[in-house]
Amino acid sequence: MRAVERNESVIWRRRAPKAELVRFAGWFALATLTVFCFQVMTRDTVWSFLLDAHIQAADLGSRMFPPNWGYIDKLWWPLWETLNIATLGTFLAILFGVPVAFLAARNTTPSTTFVRPVAMFFIVASRSINSIIWALVLVSIIGPGALAGIIAIALRSIGFIGKLLYEAIEEIDTAQVEAIRATGASRAQVLVYGIWPQVRPAFAGISVFRWDINIRESTVLGLVGGGGIGLQLQASLNVLAWPQVTLIFLVILLTVVISEWVSAKVRHAYI
Amino acid sequence: MSSHGTTLRLRALSKRYRTGDLALDRVDLDVPAGQVMALIGPSGAGKSTLIRCVNRLVEPTSGSIVLGSTDITGLTPRGLRRARQRMGMIFQEYALVERLTVMENVLSGQLGSVGFWRSYFRRFPEATVRQAFAMLERVGLSDHIDKRADALSGGQRQRVGIARALVQNPEILLVDEPTASLDPKTSRQIMRLVCELCAEHGLAAVINIHDVQLAQLFVQRIVGLRAGRVVFDGPPGELNADVLTEIYGEEDWTASLGGKQAASSAQAALEVEEERLAGLT
User: A87 touching B, CB under 8 A?
Assistant: First the structure.
């Protein structure tokens, strides 16, 4: 009952009065909850510590600057290792993630009752665990080093690539697939001619996007022994060598900016 | 191929969709070799379903489909693929693989007779490639061979679709609303091209079409479908207001009947259209 007649003229409201009241109650409850949560959150905060936070920050800042530029000589190799961990990990993830995506997509899976749930389980399992946790587990299994990092990156990325790619596969135009089927093509040929050309741009976008994320993630894997620049970061933090930490931050920042630029270029080229 | 004998024979063909809709109700139909036949009828009459049952993109519920001497309904997957090679299909929205080139789209018509790795690396047999070039020249697309399909206009795309179907060397063409997305002039050109190619290669064709006038101009036989049943089957000249009412329901049909008068007024309309286009350029 949206339109209301009053004094012989028709008044239109977006919602009926009752719905309006319910909505108001909802927003009010949300605001109350927010206030309550803030109180719980700050119960143990010692406000006097917060008062001189800006002094502490300035103090840390002064110890971090200027960056220790000479330290760069010790960073080239770990940086190279970090890039390799990210790239090889991404390749490995593509190798396994693409088949998993085709097994999970409703329109390409051989069986929706058996194969699809299994593929979905792999995707969810892979996605639910962060790379750094995977690295922790792997370091204790296969020992510290770049290999553990590569596999950790791959295990986390399989789910990411699998999920985004299978969603892209499910959204393809079925008419093009039908046309290829109608020529008498085999299932494998339908995949290559009818489906793959349609998902290739999505595949390129997803892969470089994940590579881009993996570069950022591989910078911290060293903290748990997964190899790469994170090892230097941890060593510098342990001895409170703040100017070295600053330089590592700058190097990571620059690497991420460059990888971001590369992935934007690749995505643009494939549309 | 001889012009005698029957290319396609449908017997008591029925299709009931899982939703319960009966799309085809015991259809009997014979298409002789070399005959171009138009299938008309309102939306939802089962025209598309009929065509798709023939190459089993849609699985028929009961009845039989015989192509030449092959019973299509009882085939193994491998046998079905071989049978599909013998039927070229042309689609309403062209159904080209948009991101492949014109040449790749045309060559895809031969996928059924080329192994997986050869097709993956685009190493098609020389004879097939030569045929594809010839076909592209025949449909007037020699200048667009390496363009991506999505860079073409509607009429050009449909020509690629036609070339893809003909590269299969089929015995019959299954044509689903070939002109529904095209302007009146291009529609005529496409219909003319399809019918000419059928004549050149001695092909039979089943053409689903909404435009009754266009069908009358080009085909030898018209079959009217209503609610999954054949309600008219005869030469274009026998189509009259009563028959159209039988197929589509009550309406004033005088303007859309292909008598001499109607045909000439359609011609006049086309000329006006051409003048308008000329004025625009």
Answer: no
Is there a contact between A184 and B81 if contact means CB atoms under 8 Å apart? yes
Range in A40-54, B26-40, B204-218 with the lowest mean pLDDT = A40-54
**Taking Cα atoms as reference points, which of B138, B146, B140, B159 lies closest to residue B96?**
B159
Find the CB nearest A185 among B87, B104, B111. B111
**What pLDDT, on the 0 to 100 scale, is given for residue B269?**
54
As to burial, measured by CB atoms within 10 angstroms (0-12 exposed, 13-18 middle, 19+ buried), residue B152 is buried
pLDDT band at B262 (very low <50, low <70, confident <90, very high): very low
Please, are residues B48 and B176 in contact by the beta-carbon 8 Å criterion? Answer: yes
**According to the model, what pLDDT value does residue B149 have?**
93
Q: What is the pTM of this model?
A: 0.81
Contact A175 B84 (CB under 8 A): no
Asked if residue B273 has pLDDT above 90, the reply is no
- Straight-line distance from the first to the last Cα atom of chain B, in angstroms, rounded to the nearest whole number: 45
Q: What percent of chain B has pLDDT over 90?
A: 68
Confidence of residue B261 (pLDDT cuts 50, 70, 90): very low
By C-alpha distance, which of A127, A129, A152 is closest to A139?
A: A152
Question: Which structural domains are found in chain A, ordered by start?
Answer: 77-270 (1.10.3720.10)
Which residue in this structure is represented by tokens 């040449």?
B103
Q: How far is B82 from chain A (nearest CA, A)?
A: 6
Q: B98–A176: do the CB atoms touch at under 8 Å?
A: yes
Bridge partners (DSSP) of residue B86 are: none
Q: Which amino acid is at B245?
A: T
- Per-residue pLDDT tens for A128-147? 988 889 999 999 998 888 89
Q: Which domains does chain B have, with CATH numbers?
A: 1-86+171-252 (3.40.50.300), 102-169 (no CATH)
- Residue B161 CB neighbour total at 10 angstroms: 28
With helix as H, strand as E and coil as C, how does B193-215 read? HHHHHHHHHCCEEEEECCCHHHH
